[in-house]
UniProtKB/TrEMBL annotation, chain A:
Gene Ontology molecular-function annotations: double-stranded RNA binding; ribonuclease III activity
Database matches in Gene3D superfamilies: 3.30.160.20, Ribonuclease III domain (1.10.1520.10)
An annotated GO cellular component: ribonucleoprotein complex
Main location per the UniProt record: mitochondrion
One GO biological process term: RNA processing
Residues annotated as transmembrane: none
UniProt-recorded name of the protein: Large ribosomal subunit protein mL44
Domain named DRBM: residues: 218-288
Source species, domain of life: Eukaryota
Keyword Ribosomal protein tagged: yes
Lineage: Eukaryota, Metazoa, Spiralia, Gnathifera, Rotifera
From TrEMBL, chain B:
GO cellular component labels: mitochondrial large ribosomal subunit
Record protein name field: Mitochondrial ribosomal protein L13
Family: Belongs to the universal ribosomal protein uL13 family.
Record keywords: Ribonucleoprotein, Ribosomal protein
GO MF term list: mRNA binding; structural constituent of ribosome
Highest taxon of source: Eukaryota
A Pfam family it matches: Ribosomal_L13
Keyword Ribosomal protein on entry: yes
InterPro entries per record: Ribosomal_uL13, Ribosomal_uL13_sf
GO biological process assignments: negative regulation of translation; translation
From TrEMBL, chain C:
Protein's recorded name: Large ribosomal subunit protein mL43
Subcellular location: Mitochondrion
Sequence similarity: Belongs to the mitochondrion-specific ribosomal protein mL43 family.
Entry keyword annotation includes Ribosomal protein: yes
Length: 310, 224, 198
């Protein structure tokens, strides 16, 4: 670490003129040099990649082959870089194919497919009345690059990935996580891979409202459609409460009814907002995804029959 | 607007209450109103949070104080300089500002912290039942009074007095004329009333009001 | 300057929390675990690698040396998910550097610590999430405060209140007033009447 405190300020005045000038010059030079360049973690002295991989397999309790894990953590850019280096060193094109490892693109594709299938299955099981469109939206959110990259960096893949830049890009992180799932599938079977998805990707839904993840543009229209499909009458909205009408903090509570049967109610600052929110509330109650609904039992998915063998 | 925002709005919305102060004791109703203004009637109440509701109090001109309080209780005013404190008896204060008594009663029921002024700003007081339309529109609930509104004798119809059960019969010896009060009482002319010395702005106490309060206008007359 | 002095003088030498002054506004958040650790069927130890910097000669690292000689192998066997690096450095103070899955780093000076204290610090790092720099807004937090529906001012309020025009005469008086003497007499009188007729 470089000390960027101005000498001669907090420790009192510097008495020697020459020392002051010397320190000031060092300070200026440090500023001119700019920030330190980012370095690979592997550039530091305390780094043993094999040990790291070994620890990684034990961290998640998976019995993985170290070589397969090494492949899963190798990004395409790393391979490209090695090939480029070899070409520059003057090696023949035939030698380039004899590399001992491959990149993780295939594994990632495989892992992503497993994750997508499992998430759809689990969500369908736990929210049977939620429409297919919504489940697809949630799956898309869970498998989006930002989510998966966040999970991947949280699982410590940031330093394990072999790529051409010190801090890997979100796509690299995403590929690494999916490839890890893929390699679990290859080593110990699909069920184990699905448990991994349930433990680390599906749990991303904790504390999130799945009705907010699926953004419905016109909730009243959707409610009408759903009621029609169920053979019920069209929804009617009624004002239940209104207070502070002429004040800034006005509150309206609007309820939605179908054939005098209560569907849902909600509050809002204006009547139109309250009506829209009431329609959303009615949808939540119809789909059985409101707050009364229990969370997905992430640790008991075996008992629910979603995962057959442990 | 997200759905949890709507829930938040519903939980923390300020409800407007109406309070009819006619024939109510301002001290007891002040306790109730202060509780509502501070939000203590809500389960979400927490001392640091502003969770109070709004209250419109009407008919404050017609509040009923206990016992002799209109005359015997006063607003003590202490100003900065020496010998400048004086009292305003409540009936005089009520003449000056008919909403002031209820206002002060509510104020005295609140703890004297810095939030008190903001809570009091949510109290709207009106001397009669004339309330601006834009305020009465907001109301969605009413606070019940703490006193039974009494029925005055001149409110009763002659039919009521007739049908009321006769509890007992007057004895024959009793002369009903003797019940007439005016026979035993003489109205004292003002020149006969003993004058008191009034000290201006000296001491708090009902003897030292800043104007003269004549109290004894009647005198008992002995009939032999 | 005074703050700086206070930091030096009053705080113990070994403290994992950094100095916090209430005059400054520091970042704060609700209590949480990284990636909802432990919600699924497994717990992931957040400590990724542990570097022990130690001197072979100086007295300051006697406890650290003891720990390495006696407990290191056992520790590594029990916790295979932590990569332990031992870094001998000549004539310098012993340090403990923990690196976490999320990329956080913890540095703890181990000067003059005995074996037990070193063990304590290592297990302290092992059981951590890794970011003590955050101030916690509250010690507890929940994302779903209620499953019965959150309370609003309108719950349990009689529904007829919205249909009335205010001021309303029915709501002015007390709900359950005491019976006055007049009313009592009238009631007694009516009872007497009934008794006489029956």
């Amino acid at each position: 670490m470089v000390r960027l405190l101005r000498y001669g300020t907090i420790f009192g005045p510097l008495k020697d003129r020459w020392r002051y000038l010397y320190k000031r010059d060092l300070y200026k030079r440090r500023l001119e040099a700019g920030p330190e360049p980012e370095r690979f973690r592997s550039a530091l002295i305390n780094w043993n990649y094999d040990a790291e991989l070994y620890a990684c397999t034990h961290r998640f309790g998976e019995k993985l082959n170290i070589e397969s894990l090494r492949n899963a953590m190798t990004d395409a850019s790393f391979l490209k870089q090695i090939v480029k280096q070899r070409t520059e060193a003057g090696l023949a094109a035939t030698d380039q194919t004899t590399l001992a490892f491959t990149h993780n693109q295939e594994l990632a594709k495989q892992g992503k497919q497993i994750a997508e299938d499992f998430l759809q299955k689990a969500l369908h099981y736990w929210y049977p009345k939620f429409p297919q469109e919504g489940i697809e939206a949630i799956t898309k959110f869970l498998l989006s690059e930002s989510t998966i990259a966040d999970i991947s960096s949280g699982l410590g893949f940031k330093t394990l990935i072999r790529c051409d830049i010190p801090s890997p890009r979100p796509t690299m992180l995403t590929n690494a996580l999916f490839a890890f799932i893929g390699s679990i599938n290859e080593n110990t079977g699909r069920s184990r891979a699905e448990v991994f998805v349930a433990d680390f990707i599906l749990t991303h839904l904790v504390g999130k409202d799945i009705n907010e993840i699926w953004q419905v543009k016109n909730p009243m229209g959707l409610l009408t459609k759903v009621l029609e499909e169920n053979g019920r009458q069209a929804p009617e909205s009624r004002l239940i409460w209104a207070t502070g009408v002429s004040s800034v903090l006005s509150t309206y509570v609007v309820g939605v009814y179908s054939n005098k049967e209560f569907l849902g109610k909600s509050a809002g600052a204006t009547v139109s907002i309250a009506e829209e929110m009431a329609a959303r509330d009615a949808l939540r109650r119809l789909f059985e995804t409101d707050e009364k609904r229990a969370q997905i039992p992430f640790d008991k998915l075996y008992k629910k029959g979603l995962l057959l063998d442990k | 607007m997200a759905f949890n925002k709507a829930q938040q709005l519903a939980t923390f919305s300020r409800v407007w209450y109406l309070f009819d102060a006619k024939w109510q004791c301002p001290h007891m109703s002040g306790e109730r109103i202060a509780r509502i203004l501070r939000g203590e009637h809500k389960p979400i109440y927490y001392p640091g949070e502003s969770t109070g509701d709004c209250v419109i109090a009407i008919n404050t001109r017609h509040v009923a104080l206990r016992n002799d309080a209109w005359r015997s209780e006063a607003l003590h005013i202490k100003r900065e300089y020496a010998k400048t404190r004086y009292d305003i008896p409540l009936f005089k204060l009520h003449e000056l500002d008919p909403t002031k008594v209820l206002h002060l009663c509510v104020l005295s029921c609140m703890p004297s912290d810095s939030i008190r002024r903001y809570d009091m700003a949510r109290l709207y007081t009106f001397p009669d039942d004339a309330v601006p339309v834009h305020l009465i529109k907001n109301v969605c609930d009413q606070i019940r009074g703490s006193r039974v509104i009494p029925k005055r004798l001149d409110d009763l119809t002659p039919n009521d007095t007739k049908t009321f059960p006769q509890m007992f019969k007057w004895p024959k010896e009793l002369v009903l004329d003797d019940l007439d009060r005016d026979k035993f009482v003489r109205v004292v002319p003002p020149e006969e009333i003993p004058k008191r010395e009034v000290m201006l702005g000296q001491r708090a106490g009902k003897q030292n009001y800043w104007f003269h309060v004549p109290t004894s206008r009647h005198e008992e007359v002995k009939i032999n | 300057m005074s703050q700086f002095l206070r930091r030096i003088t009053s705080l113990p030498i070994q403290s994992i929390r950094s100095f916090h002054s209430f005059d400054e506004v520091t970042p704060a958040k609700y209590i949480s675990t990284r990636l909802k650790n432990g919600v699924g069927s497994r717990y992931v130890c957040q400590l990724q690698r542990l570097t022990i910097q130690v001197c072979k000669e100086f007295r300051t690292s006697f406890g650290t040396r003891d720990w390495i000689a006696n407990d290191l192998i056992k520790f590594a066997r029990e916790h295979p998910y932590v990569v332990v690096y031992v870094q001998p450095r000549r004539h310098r103070a012993p340090n403990l550097v923990g690196e976490y899955l999320a990329g956080d780093r913890q540095w703890i000076p181990l000067s003059n610590c005995d074996r037990e204290k070193v063990n304590w610090w290592i297990h302290s790092l092992l059981t951590q999430k890794g970011d003590p720099q955050w101030r916690l807004l509250k010690q507890m937090h929940t994302d779903s405060p209620s499953v019965q529906g959150i309370w609003t001012p309108f719950t349990n309020k009689p529904i007829d209140r919205i249909t009335r025009t205010y001021p309303d005469k029915d709501l002015t008086e007390m709900e359950y007033p005491q019976i006055t003497a007049t009313q009592q007499i009238q009631e007694l009188f009516e009872q007497q009447k009934l008794n006489k007729t029956s």
